[in-house]
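B., you asked whether I could sanity-check this one before it goes into the benchmark set. Here's the sequence:
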Amino acid sequence: MAIPKEPRQLMINIMYLVLTALLALNVSAEIFNAFKVVDEGLIASNQSLDESNSKLPDIIKERAKKKKELEVYAERVGPAREISKELSVYIDNMVQMMIDEAGVKDGVVDDQDYVMVQGVRELRGKKNKDVTTRLLVDEGRGNELKAKIEEYRAKFLELIDEEDRPAFEKDMALVIDNETWKNSNRKKKHASWAAFNFRQMPLAATLPIFSKFKNDAKSTESAVLNYLMGKVGGEDIVLDKFTVVSAPRKSYVIKGERFDTEVFLSASASAASNTGVSIRVNGTPVRTDENGVAKWSAPASSVGIKTYTADISVTNPVNGETSNYKRTFEFEVGERSVSVSASKMNVFYIGVDNPVEVSAAGVSSNQLKVSMSGGGGATIKRQSDGTYVVNATKQTRAGEFAKVNVQAPGVTVAKDFRVKRIPDPVPVLSGKKGGAIGNGELRAQQALIPQLEGFDFDARCALSGFQLIRSAKREDPVLNANKGGKFDSKSKELINKAKPGDIYVFDNIKCKCPGDVANRTLPSVVFKVQ
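And here's what the prediction gave me:
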């Protein structure tokens, strides 16, 4: 900021600096933590994209060998990866420079640029607004970044066939939003894209923006690679892998029964109609049906593990070459036994009905005596369909189990199960666990929903309350303690104010699931309005 000669203007500038300092003091630790959560999520997404993008180049190059005219697409793989890498390195260097300038200013980013706050490693200059304003706005590096993004966006488009560019360009992730700042009522104050995005922004608030640009570059790289994959025949199916498969009706049979199985050739695609297949089991030919499937059976005359060998000859209908495939399988013949298994998994959960199946080979279900013992405060009850339901009341400790005891003629079995509480649900809004959300999409929501993921039981958790934080640019954060999962009038008022760039944090989320005595605390979720 230039120092004016007039005392009045000098006083105005000093007052502006004081106001800026007060605004910085009013930014709560929760908001800075929200910035950190968003940035860490984007970094994790970037790592996943890197891993995914690294697998495609070799596949594209291999498929391009089929026809000479496809080689042009394989030649574009290297440039696509290099464009993404160059832009990512450029962004990383800019971030490193800002961290150093807001830290100890020694030309490198190291441990001295960080501090430990309550056992957590934090940036020393995370609240610094002067560095971001000076470097990105006053010295022009922000507009330089904008020009770089537009330059590399054009380079990506050069890798797309001209007739495909309009459709591809419409969905490109790497793009500069010029409309928002130009149409903003703050345009007079922010005369450029860089000023609109970075002026008086704390360092911690700018890092997610830079991570997003890296994410856009890697997403565009992925889109280009997938485009090239489609051009070289990425959807082709090649019939080049065969294996022998034995599909027994059951691999454990009772003495006196017969063992039955189906033996057939499995391929990665449908076989040609004239393919010649012959099957032998233990050296004896087995007739195949119209689908190429052979059925073989053997008597279960003694107890123990039995083996059999299947070999298949396949004649290629195109070149007449014959290939042989051979594999050995086994099955077990046993005496009567009792089986106890949880219908869902090997765990009982508190607060829900846990279905259990109890069976004994060759024994009527009416002859079974089933009971519970051990830890977990569990009880068991038989249902009308012959299955059982276990209800548990407390978690088992390490080495402690709830036992299902089964008595049948000639056999007694006790099966161990652990008892756990229902896993923590995930707070979702409009089916999302955080990240970007549309303005209208956010306003349409009525409640924060605790969603049980990967939980096979019919159970519903309920929110007892949460803290909603709205953080908008150039405004103080506003907090509201909401009771229950449904938005109260204050929360709805905050959400109705949503505009692009606003950040909403749902924190201190309290929840109760079936069987819970006290509330449990769920992780915070953060949304940024698009």
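One thing to flag: The two ends are 32 Å apart (CA to CA). Otherwise nothing jumped out at me.
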